[in-house]
Amino acid sequence: MHGHGIKITNARKQFGRAEILQRIDLDIQAGEFLTLLGPSGCGKSTLLRMIAGFDQLSSGSIQIGDREITRLPPKKRDVAMVFQSYALYPHMTVAKNIGMPLEMSRLSFRQRLPGSRLFSRQVREIHREIAQTVDKVAGQLDLKPLLDRKPAQLSGGQRQRVAVGRAIVRQPSVFLMDEPLSNLDAKLRIQLREEISDLHRRTGITFLYVTHDQTEAMAMSNRVAVMQSGRIVQCAKPQEIYNRPSELAVARFVGSVAINELPVTVASGDILLAQRSLKLRAAEAPNDACTLALRPESLEAVSHDEEADFTLPLLHVEFSGSEVTLRCDASALGTDRIRVQMRAERFERLRGEGAIEDQVALRILAQNALLFSRTGQLMPAQLATRGAGR
Amino acid sequence: MTHTLSMADESLAVAMPVSKNEGAGYKIHGYVFSAPAFLLLLATVIAPIVVVFIVSLTNYKLGRASLSFIGLGNYTKLLQDPYFWNALKNSAIYTAIVVPVSVGLALIVAALLSSRTRSRRVYEVIYFLPVTSTLTAMSIVWSYLLNGNIGPLATLMTSLGMKPLDFLADSDLALFGLAIIGTWHMLGFNLILFLAGFTTISKELTEAAQLDGIDSFWDRIRYIIWPLIAPTTIVVVAISCIQAFQAFDTVAVLTNGGPYGATEMLLYKINQDSFIGLKAGYGSALTVIYLILIGLFSIFQVMATNKKAHF
Predict the structure, then answer these.
(1) How far is Cα A368 from Cα A295, in angstroms, rounded to an integer?
(2) Which chain A residue's Cα is nearest to B203?
(3) Superfamily assignment of A6-243 in CATH?
(4) Is the pTM of this model over 0.80?
(5) Per-residue pLDDT at B38
C-alpha cells in the first residue's frame, strides 16, 4: 500500500491560442482507481501527459502525495505509464525491457558502461538483484516463459503485459495508463481489464486511467471524471455518472445503449410532450422548453390495458443474450428513435400476451428519468409520477 | 521480373489448361515489356563494364588505331606499381577519416536536431547547403580558408602564438586538409538520412524511455537512438564509403595529387593514367580494381541490411 494521491489545482494548458485544458481541478485519493473518460480531443491524454511530465502546464500545479512535481522531469515524479502502442524497446528482450527502469535508477552512468560487470562485484550484485525482481514481476504477469523473446515475437496481449511489467517493476506511487487496451481485440480487452483491476487491488497503487470507452471506465473505476472540450464536466462514482449525469453531454456519452431524448415543455409542473401531458410531474421546475432524457431501461413496455405514456410503432428487436432492445419510431414525439431495454423473459411474456406486435405501449419510470434545461444542465427538480407524487 | 512472369504463367495455366500457346505468347509479352529497361541497363552499365574489362587486357593507347592483347599484363604491372599502392593507401586513409567523422557528427547533430521543432528546418537547410554547392567552386573558397599565409585559420593560429599550419601545401597535412573539405561536404547528406531514420523512433517510445530514466543525451544515444538507427547507419556508412572513394574534385582543383603524390587518390590516378598519360589499357585495369572495391561496399551494405533490418 504505497500509492500516493494526486492533487491537480487550476491546471491550464494552451497551445498557441487554443485552450486544451481549462482550469482543471482534480483530487485523486491515494490508492484510488480514477478514469478520465471523454471523446478524442477532449484533453484527457494531454492531462495525463502533464502528470507524467512530457508536457508543461501553462499555469496551475500538480502534486503527488506532498510533493510539488509541476516542474520536475518525468523520471523524478515516481510515476509509471503504460502506452496505447505499448512503447516497448524493440531491440531488447522481455527481461531487459522490464529491467530497464531498475538498471537506470540503480546503476550510475559509469556502472552501466559495457564490461563494468567484469570488474566490479557490486555491479554484478546489483544485476543479480535486478534479475530477481524481473523474475518476480514476470511470474506475477505470466511472462516467465517469454523472458528471452523480443517484442516482435509477442502477441498484442503479451506485449501489453510486458509494458505493465516494465511499469510496476520499480513500484511507482502512481500508475498512468493511456488507452492501454484499445489496440486489442474485444475478448482480450475484457480479460486484461480484469487483470488490471486485480493488479490495482493487489498493489494498492493509485491508478489514473484514460479511455474513450465508457464500458471500460464503468467496469474498472472507483470514480470516473468525464471530460469534455478541455474541462472536467463531472467526477463521481460510475453509478452516479450513469444515473445522475450532470449534463446532457455526459448522459449521451455514458451508457452502452444511447439515451433517449424527448423534447418537452414544462408548464406549471406538468410535462408536455407533443402537446400532450405525460403522467410525470416536475413540481419545482420553471416553465421552459426542456429535454427529458430516459435510459432504455427507464421505459417500460406495458400491455395495452395498462396506462401507457405513449404508443409507438416498433421497428426492430435486438437480442443480446439476457437483454432485449426494442427500437421504436418516435417521429410522432418530435425525435428520431426511442430505444427500450428489458429482460428477455419479460419480452417473451409480453409478446405471448400480444402486447408487443407492430405497436408497443410504453410507460416512463419516474425514478430514473432525467430532466435537462435548455442549456443541457441537469435540473434539480424532483420527478414523480402523477398521483404518487401528490 | 522473371519471378512475376512465371507466377502469372502458372496462374494462367491453372485457369486455362487448354491453350498452351497463349501461355507462350504471354511470356513473350513479358520480355517485350521488360526489354526497354533491360536494353538501357545493358547499354549504360553492363556494356561499358565489359568494354573496360576487355580494354584492360590490351595495351591500347588512347588515340591509337591499333591494339594487341597482353592478357593480365596490365594487372601484374599494376601490382608492382608503387604509385598505385600509394593512391590506394591515400584513398583508404581519406575514407578512414571522412567516413567515421562525417557519420558520427551527422548522428550527433541529428540527435540534437530531432528534439527541436521550429528551428529544425533552419538547421536542416544550413547543413544541407554544402551538398547542393559545387565542390569545384567551394574548393577555391576552402583553399583560401586553409591557406597557410593569408587564410583566416593561419591568422587565428598566429594570433594564438602557434605556428600556422598550411594544410594544402604540407605533404603531411594535405590529405587531412582534403578530408576536412570532404567531411564538410558529406555531413549534410548524412544528416538528412539520419533525420529520416529518426522518424522510425516513435514519440511514445522516447517518452517511455524518459520515464524509465533514459533522458540524458548519451543514454538516449546508447539505449534508444543507436540500436534503432542501426539499419540507417549501415546505409549511411556504405554510401559514405563509396562517396569517399570517389573523391576527385578537390584533388583535381586544389592539389593535383601533390605535394609529391601525398594526395593522389584512386580516381585521380585513373584519370591521370587514362587521359593525361593516354594509357587506356592500364587505366582500364585500374578502373576494374576500383569497381570491385565499390562493389564490395555495396555487397557489405546489402548483406548487413538484410541481417540487421529486423529485430
Answers:
(1) 7
(2) A87
(3) P-loop containing nucleotide triphosphate hydrolases (3.40.50.300)
(4) no
(5) 94
